[in-house]
Structures are given as C-alpha cells and as structure tokens.
Design the sequence.
C-alpha cells in the first residue's frame, strides 16, 4: 500500500491480512471446541431452579393489584372512580354505594365501593390506577405468579384484592414507589383532622 | 417355509439376532443421544439441562418418546398424502439399511457361526454399499420437502439435495484412499489391517482423508455447521416444517442414526475399530475378549459422537455459497491430491511413511487461499484509494 499516497485528513484503515493459520480454519475450530470443552468441564450453571428457588422481585415491581385498608381495617377506597377513568385497558369496574351516614364508623366519607372488580387478564399493569388514586387505596404489588384455570377466576373482586393487601403487608412485601407524591387529604384524614400514622411498611411520604 | 427356516436355523438366527439388536438399540440410542446432547449443550452454555424427570433427568428421553408417540397424527390438507407419509419411512429405512454391513462390535474375518456383531458379515463391497445406501437418504428429505407442498420445506429439500450431491464426492474420495491402503472394501478387513501397534491406525497414514471424510460426513448428517436444510432462522423448520408427532420423530431418528453411522465409520476406518494396542484381536477369541473389543469400539464411537456434539457449539452455520465452496473448492481438490499421493506411494512401492507428507496439502491450500484473499483485499484497497484521489482532483 506504499504506492498509494495517503491523505492526511482521512483515517486509513485496512483489513487485517489473512494468515495461513486463519485460512486453514483448523486452529479456529480447535479453539472453539476447546472453549466448549472448558465450559462443559467446569460446570458453573447460572440456572435458578425456579419453583423451588424464587427470585427476589424489586419492590417497585408492578404486579397484582391490592386494595389497601386503613388503620380500622376498612377499605381505603372512597369510590371516586379516578382509577376506573384512568385505566387504559378498562379493566376496573366500581359500583359505589353511599356510606352509611348514621354509622360513626363511616363518618369521614361519602361513598365507599360496594363492589370493586379488576379483570387481571385485561389489565396491562401500567400503574395508572395507582397514580390516579387520590387516597393511595389501590397499589400494584410485587406478586407476579398469577395463574388461574378459568377467566372468571382471574376477575378479582373486592375481597380478593383486600386479601392480596393482607398477604403482602403481612409478609412484608409492601410495594415501594419512589415517585409517590404527597398523599391526598382523604387518605389519612382522621376525625380530628390530624394525620394518622402511616400504615405499616408504607414509608414516609415523598 | 417353517421347514426351510428350521433347516437353515443355524445360519438364520445370528442374522435375525443382529437385526433385532440394531432395531432395539438404535431407536433407544437416538432417544438417549438427544438427552446427552441436551445435557452437553447445557453444560457448554453454563446451564443445567433437563433434570426434572427421574434422577438427573435420565427419564427425560423416555418421557419425550412417550409424549411424541401419543401425539395426534396430523396430515395437513395441502400435502401429497402418499409421499408425505412415505418420506419419513424412506428416510429412516435408508439410514437403518446402511447399518446392515456395519460391524458394531468385533467381527473375526473368518466367520464360522454363532452370534456376531454384524448383520451381513464378509460383504466384499461393504463400504461401497454403505456409502451408496446412506446417500439414498437424500430421497427421504427431498420427497418430504416436495410432498409438504410448502415453500420453506421445498427450499430445505433443494438445499439438502445440492449439499448431498456435493459432499458425496469428497466423502467417496477420502474413503478411496483408505480402501487403497487396506486393499479391500470389506470393512472387517479394513479394521483387521489396523490391528497391531497404534501406528497401524489409518489416521496416521491418512490424516487428510480423515479431515475430508469427517467434514463431508458431518455435512451428510445435516448437523450444525452444515444444517442448512433445516436452519430454523431462515426456513422455519426446513424439510420437516409440516411434520409432527411420530412422522417427525422418524426424520429425527434418521438423523441420529446417521450420526451413529458416521461415528462408527470414523472409528472403524480411521481409528482402528475394535483394536487397541495390547488387546487380542477377535479371531477365535473368547466371549470376554469380544466384549472388551466391543467396549473399545463403543468408547471410540462415543468420543466421536461427543466431538460432533461439541462442534455444534463451537462453529457457526455456513452460508450456502460457503458450503458449496468448501466442498468444491476445498475438499474435492484436497481429496484428489490426497488420493494422488496414495496412488504414487502404492504404485512405486515407496515407504508408507511418505504418506505423512499429505499433511502439507491442507497447509499449502491454506497458503494459496490466504495469498489470494490478501491480494483481492489489496486490489480493492487500491481501487478505493484511486477513486478517492480522482474525487479530490475533480473538486
């Protein structure tokens, strides 16, 4: 290539020369087989034996929904339909009922969900419901192994969603969101207007 | 008929016995080779592999077999039904038929009677028949691809056809060298010539033939570096795209039978078969000695099989023009030159040691191809530089 005058501004590259060993192919094949043998002999599998050994799921994973309870064990939801409106997959269906006014137990809110169903098969697990919720009543947990034999089985009703809350909060798998803003006023409102202690595992606001 | 059978019973039963052994062992071997292959692949790729069914997953092969036998028999509407059903059987038939002349254990040259590890002993055109029959297995693939009435199947079949025809030639050429040195086409005789010391093995006299033979034989088995007839990424499944259940398994079994055949042939033709230095030959030997010979052969064959399986994870697949180029521009000239060397040594009665010089052949070929390649790069570079210069001038 010496007879070609090289330009100063252009970076000239050239393909590497093919040597006899390269063209013979056999050394390359031998080194390939040697690599295969080396791996076959030093068995360090990275396989996780799944059903026995479960993976650790990050707490901000968006899995099965749960309906949170407040300190008195009531469903926190106030049936505002925000999640149902926000849901891009139309998988949430709420039927609201007026809260019993004469009962002091329900004095702090106007409505509560008589039914609250989520079609877990239709859900795309985007987390919009969680972001829309003004009272942090609906959350996506890190439960990922969701199966069922029928479609009907996969439509979760209020009790099922509350039981997901019980399971996850008892086993310490409460979801953690880094982008959770200040809670809505209805969330932790108590009779006296003071903020109550946050439920277990929820972390501080912000 | 029965009288006939009774009269010839002493002659008939060893044949029937050998056939029974082959028919019983080969499908079993095929199933367990898939298991070994999956395990080996897993280890090479730092995985564990099948370990759920039975201890160490050993029953996985049985479970696979059961599942595939119980599968629904699907014949698609758009296929040519007769050929569609015929193709897998044809494929397995030819693959198994090639085993007729293949000794799968020590066979004495002067066979007298009783059980022996071969269906048809003392066939004087043994190796020729084996090559002829096993090349017929292209028909199974071509018929299957044609009958499937599917473009991908057809492409797979066409590729396979071209590949088989191309690689038949170097396969034959490499075997001729061995035949010429042994002076016989009888496989038992070829093996018997390799008794004695380690240096009697053909691999030391015909290393280039081994290279050419093994490469071509690998191409005949449609194994990974040469599995263009069924490469998943391009052709869905290749010629067996439309096949499922037991018909697919027949194709599959044929492929593994081919691997067994190739491994046996490599061990028999080049690595001394059932001979190992220090061990007695099969002539007039007792049962333990025969079993020892069988063990030696099986170990050699297993090594070849495992090498074939390891090659799968060491080499990428060829492009089709590279495949054809390797056969026509690489292996056939090499085989011819090797054959020429053998012919010269045998004709002029030169010392056999000169055959080791054939090892220089692939080196010379590599040198030639490297210089050609580098020259082509050089000229391309100069053309490019020239056009750049002109571009500067025009500015």
Sequence:
């Amino acid at each position: 290539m010496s007879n070609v005058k090289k330009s100063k501004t252009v970076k000239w590259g050239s393909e590497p020369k093919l040597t006899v060993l390269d063209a013979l192919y056999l050394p390359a094949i031998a080194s390939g087989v040697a690599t295969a043998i080396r791996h076959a002999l030093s068995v360090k599998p990275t396989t996780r034996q799944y059903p026995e050994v479960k993976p650790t799921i990050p707490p901000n994973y968006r899995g099965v929904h749960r309906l949170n309870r407040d300190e008195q064990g009531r469903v926190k939801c106030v049936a505002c339909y925000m999640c149902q409106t926000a849901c891009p997959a139309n998988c949430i269906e709420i039927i609201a009922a007026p809260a019993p006014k004469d009962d002091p137990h329900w004095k702090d809110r106007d409505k509560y969900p008589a039914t609250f169903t989520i079609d877990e098969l239709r859900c795309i697990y985007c987390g919009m419901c969680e972001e829309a919720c003004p009272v942090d009543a609906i959350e996506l947990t890190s439960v990922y192994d969701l199966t069922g034999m029928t479609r009907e089985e996969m439509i979760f009703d209020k009790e099922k969603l509350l039981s997901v809350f019980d399971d996850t909060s008892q086993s310490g798998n409460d979801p953690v969101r880094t982008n959770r803003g200040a809670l809505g006023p209805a969330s932790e409102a108590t009779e006296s207007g003071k903020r109550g202690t946050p439920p277990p595992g929820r972390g501080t606001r912000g | 008929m029965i009288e006939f059978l009774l009269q010839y019973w002493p002659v008939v039963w060893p044949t029937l016995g050998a056939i029974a052994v082959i028919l019983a062992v080969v499908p079993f071997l095929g199933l367990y080779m898939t298991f070994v292959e999956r395990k080996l692949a897993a280890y090479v790729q730092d995985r564990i592999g099948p370990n759920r069914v039975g201890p160490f997953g050993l029953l996985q092969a049985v479970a696979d077999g059961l599942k595939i036998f119980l599968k629904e028999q699907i014949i698609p509407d758009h296929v040519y039904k007769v050929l569609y059903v015929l193709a897998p059987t044809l494929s397995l038939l030819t693959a198994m038929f090639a085993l007729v002349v293949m000794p799968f254990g020590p066979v004495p040259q002067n066979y007298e009677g009783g059980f022996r590890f071969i269906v048809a002993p003392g066939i004087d055109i043994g190796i020729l028949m084996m090559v002829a029959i096993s090349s017929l297995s292209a028909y199974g693939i071509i018929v299957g691809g044609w009958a499937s009435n599917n473009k991908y199947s057809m492409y797979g079949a066409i590729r396979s056809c071209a590949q088989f025809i191309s690689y038949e030639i170097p396969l034959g050429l490499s075997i001729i060298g061995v035949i010429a040195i042994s002076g016989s086409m009888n496989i038992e005789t070829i093996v018997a010539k390799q008794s004695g010391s380690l240096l009697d093995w053909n691999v030391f006299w015909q290393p280039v033939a081994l290279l050419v033979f093994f490469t071509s034989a690998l191409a005949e088995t449609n194994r990974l570096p040469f599995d263009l007839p069924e490469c998943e990424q391009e052709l869905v499944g290749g010629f067996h795209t439309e096949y499922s259940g037991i018909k697919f398994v027949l194709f599959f079994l044929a492929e593994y039978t081919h691997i067994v055949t190739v491994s046996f042939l490599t061990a028999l033709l080049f690595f001394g078969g059932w001979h190992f230095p220090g061990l007695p030959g099969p002539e007039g030997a007792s049962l333990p000695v025969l079993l020892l010979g069988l063990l030696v052969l099986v170990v050699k064959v297993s090594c070849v099989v495992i090498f074939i399986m390891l090659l799968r994870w060491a080499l990428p697949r060829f492009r089709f023009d590279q495949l054809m180029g390797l056969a026509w521009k690489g292996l056939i000239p090499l085989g011819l030159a090797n054959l020429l060397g053998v012919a010269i040594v045998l004709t002029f009665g030169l010392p056999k040691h000169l055959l080791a010089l054939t090892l220089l052949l692939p080196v010379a070929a590599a040198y030639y191809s490297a210089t050609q390649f580098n020259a082509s790069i050089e000229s391309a570079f100069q053309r490019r530089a020239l056009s750049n210069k002109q571009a500067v001038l025009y500015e």
In short: The interface with chain B takes residues 1, 4-5, 7, 10, 14-15, 17-26, 29, 32-33, 35-37, 39-40, 43-47, 49 of chain A (CB under 8 Å). Confidence is low (pLDDT under 50) at residues 189-196, 198-206 of chain A.
